[in-house]
Amino acid sequence: MVTALAMLMVTLELSLSSVTLPAIGSELDVGSAATKWVILAYALPTAALAIPLGRWVDHADARKVFLYAVTGVAISSVLAAAAPTFWLLVVARVLQGVLGAAVAAVYMPIVAASVPPERRGRALGYVATVMPLGAMAGTSIGGFVADGLGWRPVLLLKLPILVVVLWLGYRVLPRGEGALPRPDRALYSDTLILGGAVTALLLAFDRVEADAFALAAVLAVIAIGLGVWWTRLPSSRPILTLSRRPAFGLPLLGLLLLASYIGLTLFLLPFYVSDVVDGGPSMMGLALMFFVGAFAAGSPISGNLADRFPVRLVATAGAALSLAGTLLTLTLGPDAGVVDLAWRLALIGLGQSLFNVPNNTAILAATPPDMVGAGSGVSMTVRTLAFTVGPSLAALAYTLGGSGAGGFRAGVILIAVLQAAGLLAAVAARPARS
């Protein structure tokens, strides 16, 4: 319960802040392009620091890290809401991202320490149920609050829940014997080099979406260079060794490929509805509610199945359903309505829920006990990259396909190929030997 609420607060930060961008731009006198940094300032450190903080958490008292990080998220939220200028707001958002990364890094270690292996599927399924439902509700509530009271109160909406999370965490989380270790040279190196590589790669794909291909290429070269440099560091060896194990690496590969669905739901379908169907945002928003609902409803079922049956079997079934739903969007016509979109999105949402929970369970089972934080960081980094790469590749295929129906078809075929490869990875994955 406590980790589910904490992860909800971390993910909710992106959806809540997205509805405030127009109001922020108007009040602080910045353009729409600049307001995007309200999102990036949070997302980039969350992704860039996932692995370094995960390694640090493996040597720390998880309970203390959790309580301090949640407290920091609350304080930084107040600082962001009170920011008098745009750039102070961005600085506060960077601080939120760093602390959010710490919460995310300690999430899996807490689950591993608190939940027996035979019940972890259900525990992860509960988390996967709370997060999309809360994010959907938070976005709606945030929109109403922003319209009535402005953007600053929106950034404070989560404070009451953070207080509850702190109280529950203090009462129910097991007390550890460790402390908060002083960051060493390896941590600083990982943060600067690996964090820089992840940041450059994410910004490169962001520039692809903006059609700034030359800058995207430069950023990609920087990311590759820093990534190669990191693989030469001694601190990278345990993570690289873990990632080469099929029981860990194949579920990660499946996660990277299957999460490409985000390019369909957040880019291809909205543009298809707008350009071909001649529908509005409300039509797409209503259809997406069926995706969220199916994902939330399927997650606890998936968790129970993952505890009863081989996780590879459940994950493969989910991957197949997601691929089927993706392929069925190719049968949409220019007269498609909400129902046509809704049932296809519901099928994809159900498939993703059946895949994600057992896949996360498999990743956790394949991670050595002394590397759960690092493994969680790798998983989070891969997921973030997938959620960035998916829309960028979809946008590129849509443009090369001539936009409209032709671009939509090209994008869906690309996403389907990626998901088919993810399905093969799910089939090939083998459970870790106990």
UniProtKB/TrEMBL annotation:
PROSITE patterns: MFS. It is found in: Cell membrane. Residues 1-434 form the Major facilitator superfamily (MFS) profile domain. It holds the Pfam family MFS_1. The chain crosses the membrane at residues 33-53, 65-88, 94-112, 124-145, 151-173, 185-205, 211-231, 252-273, 285-306, 313-333, 408-429. The keyword Hydrolase does not apply. It is a multi-pass membrane protein. InterPro entries: MFS, MFS_dom, MFS_trans_sf. Keywords: Membrane, Transmembrane, Transmembrane helix, Transport. This is MFS transporter. It comes from Actinomadura fulvescens.
